[in-house]
Known about the structure:
The chain is 45% helix and 8% strand. With 488 residues, it is mainly alpha-helical. It has a two-stranded antiparallel ribbon. Strands 2-3 form a two-stranded antiparallel sheet. A two-stranded antiparallel sheet has the order 4-10. Strand 5 (323-324) and strand 6 form a beta hairpin. Helix 2 runs antiparallel to helix 4 (105-133) and helix 12 packs antiparallel against helix 13 (402-415). It is globular and about 65 Å long. The model is unreliable at 1-8 and 10-29 (pLDDT under 50).
Amino acid sequence: MKKLIILLCIAAMATSCDKQIDKIRPLSKIDAEGQLSTLAGILEATNGTYVALSSSGSFTTYDAPWLNINESRGNNVTLQEFGQINKDNDAFFFRNSNDRLGGQSFDFYVGSYQVIVATNIVLEGIAKFEAGNLSILSAADKDKLNYVKGENLAIRAFTYFNLIRVYGKPYYQNAASSSGVPIKKTSDVKDIPAISTVKEVYDFIIGDLKKSAQLMKANVPKTNSYVNLQTAWGTLSRVYLYMGGSVANPNADFNRAAVAYADSVIDQSNGKYQLLQAANYTNMFGDDETGTLNRGVFSANKEIIWANDNGVGGSSIGQLFHYDPLYDFGGLFVPSAEFKSLLANNDLRKTFLKPNPVSGFVETTKHLSKNMYSLTYSPMIYLRLAEVYLNRAEASAKLNDFAQAKADLKAIHTRAGLLGTDIDNLTNSEVIGAVLKERRIELAFEGHGSFDYFRNGLSMTRIAADNNGTARTINADDAAVVFKVPSN
């Protein structure tokens, strides 16, 4: 049955890609003799893959189930209303249903392989195109071809990493023998790979990212709605951080790699990225329900390394966090009582919360931009500079480089309007806890929360006020941490 799931993914991807390609000229399929026989076609087919990362149409479903699974399994959100377990709140209750109607896992899994097969189709097309056309391309076109090849490798790696975070145990838990996900490297419907181990999937991800980084060194200007060299480096810093072991038993080699790739983004990007300050920072996640802040246009945002652009079609992530009184719809998740208690009065990140005057619940504004019914036009931020600083801070703390960890932590903490002495006065033993707390606050509602506990060997607790009156703790080695690969 798992083979059937991948076949369904491939079929669905072919249909959704046709819809993108039809905007150029009528085609019955994407292949080397059609769309992918020209450089322009390869570039446009890759644009279609970015569209597949949104959840705005009947054939694309990625960012909404992804965010649902990740945020609902942490302790930064609670349910606006408790009731019967259903598809939308299944992950919150750690039921982890893997059938089509029971939870969001099936949609996320299918959406992931839609994206993966799309990248495989384009990579195969590029290989055929290179064989017959490389010698006649101009230098500029060769750069474009290398770059778009790097884009597809980076997107594929990014998608596999999100899959293994959901369907694989934390890396330190016997990665070489624990079950992961199938690594599909082709677009062939007859190619149905077996499930690989967690280590094999991580090795594949790292290989793709390193190749993509080399290819995207080509001089091709693109906005931050596309992956780029720094996306590959930043994602590598994240991947190695996840491989870096628990707080109690860290892995020095992997943490050094996480630091090195974070260094590349922070120190070797020639000022391309900066931590936004003051009003620029608060506007990045400010209340933009009417579109006044124009958050849907983010190309000038120097903190965002890569965000998927929802400015045209919108995304259904809006309904997860915002109740729309006009349609009496949305607002499944609200910030938890414990999360709100973490925010000091002068913390600028309090501005990312606002009360909904109709529902009476406090909501996050991070995914609120030009809201229309169930859609939001906010960019889905997959990587920003603040996370890279925090990646380096955590890895440095695990390497006992407390000076570097404090420096990076202080940059994020003081940017939020808080005192630098809060960090200066930390003892060495307090640094790792302070880093993880800062990650929890800074990256809240962006899809990191539960993973930061479990990959570090830490238990995650919801207090009674956030769990319908009954506190609940999930340990890092609990079977409920890992989803089963969908079966039907």
